[in-house]
Design brief:
Length: about 475
């Protein structure tokens, strides 16, 4: 008989140590090994089987993050076409423990279910809900387990799995360009394009409360154009992490009325998220239309809280974008929580190409036997040409919280550049996500506001798929 002494908390991150501790009273038997079977939550197909010999204490410590993490993957933001989906990289696993041993050092072994009977492992651990996040090993809170305490279903906290300063609430971070002495529940806005896809990853099922629906309110100046309640349906209460489509392109796909609203002269919109505990879990994620903001930055006056409009703030505080008329580079990247974040840079992109050539020198022609001299004949010829294009762009001057958030872009395992229909001449039916590899080998953190007042990042990358070689 086995005893499960320790297992990971739930939900948890897949890129940490997922430790299971199992003990048995008969671990001294010949050829004894502990056995762990990993399944998907809803599947009867065995993912993998892990065996381990007893340690000097007769127990086994299984660390199962790698086989679980390898079974998880991401989807792209444009796949949120029904308002909400399950989280990218979010999976639930079932783990069962058993044992196997023989009657002598040379006998065959028999597999037991961990409950005293022959058969496949059947001693269950609690179902494990994972998302492809990382746990800082230098943060002692909860040891290896991911700390969910900063994410709370309360207006003063936030449920978003992101450190994007335009999305997190004052429970976890300060806002960029916040006005001193203003309402502590003040919410910032984020610039977004007409054809942008974007998402908000949110925790669900925290402390027994779960998300029920969210409301989209679209404004033209101070005039409310449209408001629509969107239910989470099957995802309400059934998933630990869900993804809400929050970009104009995502919201257009929900209903014809939202499609009409975002095809008009909208200035800004707000998404409010509600939970089963009642009231708004998040007072609002505010978005402002970048095309109007860039061309007429003072036309959007944001109203104070309690008026049914947006919080008091003039667009003047978005100075990092309004003076730029350069092309936009929109980065889409996996953050440290294993979810997509989005960042726009309005600066010229620098491109550099390295060219590699392989050449051959042909033997000298004996014209005494070859006939007339041919000026088109090559003495040295190139038979292979390879191109390596690299790009870089420098951000605007960054506040400390924005700069520290963008370190996740530089460190991200998966980064795309989003190209919208307007950039493509609307040849394609939806936006394209071009995979890139960030090539920065080092970077500085923004840690000293006194000496780093003009802090910027230069982001360097290359396309994952380089140009074809010439032969």
């Amino acid at each position: 008989m086995l005893t499960l002494k320790q297992q990971p908390r739930n939900p948890n991150a897949s890129q940490t140590k997922l430790v299971y501790n199992v003990s048995a009273s008969n671990s001294a038997l010949p050829q004894y090994q502990y056995v762990a079977d990993i399944y998907d939550e809803t599947s009867t197909t065995l993912y993998t089987r892990v065996r381990q010999y007893p340690n000097p204490d007769g127990e086994a410590v299984f660390e199962l993050s790698r086989p679980m993490n390898d079974r998880m993957s991401y989807r792209l933001p444009d796949q949120v076409n029904t308002g909400v989906v399950t989280a990218w990289g979010n999976s639930k696993f079932r783990v069962y423990f058993g044992e196997e041993y023989g009657t002598s050092p040379s006998s065959s072994v028999t597999l037991y279910d961990g409950l005293g009977n022959p058969g496949d492992p059947d001693l269950p651990a609690a179902p494990t809900s994972l998302f492809k996040a990382t746990k800082d090993p230098n943060n002692p809170v909860l040891g290896f387990n991911f700390d969910t305490s900063p994410f709370r279903m309360s207006p003063n906290y936030d449920v978003a799995l992101t450190d994007d300063p335009w999305k997190v609430s004052n429970g976890r971070a300060t806002f960029p360009w916040a006005q001193p002495g203003t309402d502590t529940n003040y919410k910032p806005f984020k610039l977004i394009g007409d054809q942008d896809f974007e998402t908000i990853p949110v925790f669900n099922n925290l402390l027994g409360d779960y998300l029920t629906d969210y409301r989209v309110t679209v404004y033209d100046g101070t005039t409310q154009m449209h408001q629509e309640q969107v239910g989470l349906g099957a995802y309400s209460g059934s998933q630990d992490v869900v993804i809400i489509g929050s970009g104009p392109e995502n919201l257009r796909l929900i209903s014809g009325d939202l499609d009409i609203a975002f095809s008009g002269s909208w200035d800004q919109y707000v998404i409010s998220v509600a939970s089963s505990a009642g009231g708004a879990t998040r007072d609002g994620y505010w978005y402002v239309r970048e095309s109007k903001a860039l061309t007429d930055p003072y036309s959007i006056d944001i109203m104070p809280p309690g008026t049914g409009k947006l919080p008091q703030r003039n667009f003047e505080y978005a100075a990092q974008d309004r003076y730029c008329n350069y092309e936009r580079t929109r980065f889409v990247f996996i953050n440290k929580y294993g979810q997509y974040d989005f960042y726009n840079v309005w600066s010229p992109v620098k491109k550099m190409t390295k060219v590699g050539r392989e050449t051959i020198t042909r033997p000298f022609v004996d014209y005494s036997s070859e006939g007339d001299y041919n000026i088109q004949r090559r003495g040295k010829d190139t038979y292979f040409t390879q191109f390596n294009d690299t790009f870089s762009v420098t951000t605007c001057v960054l506040e400390e919280n924005v700069a520290n958030w963008l370190t996740q872009l530089i460190e991200s395992p998966q980064v795309y550049i989003e190209i919208d229909n307007a950039q493509q001449g609307e040849i394609f039916p939806k936006n394209l996500y071009v995979p890139i590899n960030i090539t920065n080998s080092s970077y500085d953190w923004n840690t000293n506001p006194r000496s780093q007042k003009m802090f910027q990042y230069t982001i360097e990358w290359e396309y994952s798929n380089q140009r074809y070689s010439l032969t």
